[in-house]
Amino acid sequence: MSTAEVSMGTPARAREAQTVEGIPALVSELRAAFDSGKTRPIAWRLQQVAGLSRFVHEREAEITEALHADVGKPKLESFIAEINYVRGDADHVIKSLASWMKPEKVRTPLVTQPGTSRVHREPLGTALIIGPWNYPFQLVVAPLIGALAAGNCALIKPSEVAPATSALLARWLPQYVDPECVKVVLGGVPETTALLRERFDHIFYTGNGVVGRIVMEAAAKHLTPVTLELGGKSPCFIDKSADLEVTARRIAWGKFYNAGQTCVAPDYLLAHEEIHDALLERLKITLTEFYGADAQKSADYGRVVNARHHQRLMKLLASGRIVAGGQADEADRFLAPTVLADVKPDSLVMQDEIFGPILPVLRVRDVDAAIRFINARPKPLALYVFAGDSEVQDQMIARTSSGGATINHAWLHLAVPDLPFGGVGPSGMGAYHGKASFDTFSHRKSVLKKPTAIDPDLLYPPYTEAKTKWIKRLL
Questions:
Q1: Cβ atoms 67, 73 nearer than 8 A
Q2: CB 340 within 8 A of CB 314
């Protein structure tokens, strides 16, 4: 299904939403819908989340085709990381939402007795969700699940770099969720700029740090809270105690999934000097096992998103000795899964997040050297350690800082619904997934309820000596 075919099916209201001039009216419509109170009942919230679950079930083929058109995703990768993830997240929310919405009772101190204290979760209002191109379906719909579960209205801005998926969202979302409360804006920089001029109650952005700073600056003008899901160079340490055969398989899977265009992919390896050479050999063998002698012919290997990113990645190949891969075809947006050795810490490939199928491998003396290397750089979105030695595992987790971590695998911590996912420092702020998504789009309102039948005058003037003694005793 081509982009043109999807666009032709886009309803008139969605096409209108693509114009910069129409954006203020759309935001006003969303605010009016929220102010009507229709989003607050649990029945409405469950209906919306169930609609998203039905969306991925009924439109799986169209979603898969759009993802392949945009990023060349293999069918199974689309199913696992986009379609099934959204379905699982929606089902988890449906099962848990009633308990999440219950007011949380907290202790009421004696001085405020009689009374009861509770924390109520209330929706923030109207949220703006700006999605990326690498997982253009999941990274828009998953935050939307959280926003709707929390009782908000939402405006979706999918990535223009993934036009087929963006058009699909514009076409089908209004048929599965309340179109008065969820709207889609297509387009590029002008539309995003216009959106950021509007006042929202929360902005959820997934992408790079450069744009993240622009989003945060725009949000500051309205004192709008933000969730920034960014990225960075996620390190991976391989200890001498690691099982190299399993390690190579798991690293290769995590790195070259979606052709390396994953924000939590292992960005570079720090290999213990005693196993460095053996790991390189094992990686070479594993890549052949995964994708055959010619990865370009493999149905299980994706493509770089566009020519600009392909050209950017090609410049990084000179940063080290090519151990495996290196073959490229710009017309096909193909770059073979590539492993680089003899990489210097200050080389071009080590400057910014790679976001592509290039894996630099650096040699380190031991776990202490690896920790020093990691801590000398900005805090990453994810960290990985492969080690059979539990003490090494514990040291890496305790002595480094990262948004999240997986021990002896790559990025599977994202698959645990109740583990919050988010960055720290330059890799992002805020978190989502599961209940964390509900909390992100909710305000925790503190409520003290007191009866009027009993009204001791202890706190009221005149402040006698007896009252003072009692107050000090109670406090």
A1: yes
A2: no
Asked if residue 239 lies in contact with residue 387, where contact means CB atoms within 8 angstroms, the answer is yes
Contact 360, 342 (CB under 8 A): no
And the tokens for 44? 């409405």
The secondary element (H helix, E strand) that includes residue 68 is helix 60-71
Cα 66 from Cα 259, distance rounded (Å): 17
- pLDDT score at 18: 58
CA–CA distance, 271 with 317 (Å, rounded to integer): 20
Q: Are 362 and 268 spatial neighbours (Cβ–Cβ below 8 Å)?
A: yes
Give the single-character DSSP code of 294.
Answer: -
Written as one letter, the residue type at 192 is T
pLDDT (mean) for 277-290: 98
Q: 339: which residues sit within 8 A by CB, 6+ positions away?
A: 280, 283, 284, 287, 322, 323, 324, 325, 359, 361
Within 10 A of 422 (CB to CB), how many other CB atoms are there?
20
**Residue 286 carries which side chain, given as an amino acid letter?**
T
Longest dimension (CA), the chain: 90
Query: Per-residue pLDDT for 236 more than 60?
Result: yes
Two tokens, residue 426: 């330059």
First to last CA, the chain: 69
> CB-based contacts of 338: which residues, under 8 Å, 6+ apart?
317, 322, 324, 325, 326, 357, 358, 359
Which are the catalytic amino acids? 229, 263
What's residue 4's pLDDT? Answer: 33
Other Cβ atoms within 10 Å of 201 Cβ, number = 19
Tell me how far apart the alpha carbons of residues 335 and 359 are, in angstroms, rounded to a whole number: 12
Type of residue numbered 173: L
Question: Token pair for residue 310?
Answer: 């392909």
In this predicted model, what pLDDT tens digit does every residue of 178-198 receive, in sequence order? 999 999 999 999 999 999 999
Tell me which of 159 and 470 has the higher pLDDT.
Answer: 159
Q: What is the pLDDT of residues 407-462, one digit of tens each?
A: 999 999 999 999 999 999 999 999 999 999 999 999 999 999 999 998 888 889 99
In this structure, how many other beta carbons lie within 10 angstroms of the beta carbon of residue 126? 27
CA–CA separation, 367 and 187 (whole Å): 47
- Read out DSSP for 221-264? TTT--EEEE-----EEEE-TTS-HHHHHHHHHHHHHGGGG--TT
At 105-157, the pLDDT tens digits run: 999 998 888 999 999 999 999 999 999 999 999 999 999 999 999 999 999 99
Report yes or no: 71 and 258 within 8 Å, Cβ to Cβ.
yes
Q: What is the strand order of the sheet 235-238 is part of?
A: 321-324, 338-341, 358-364, 268-272, 235-238, 382-386, 404-407
Contact predicate 145/31, CB 8 Å: no
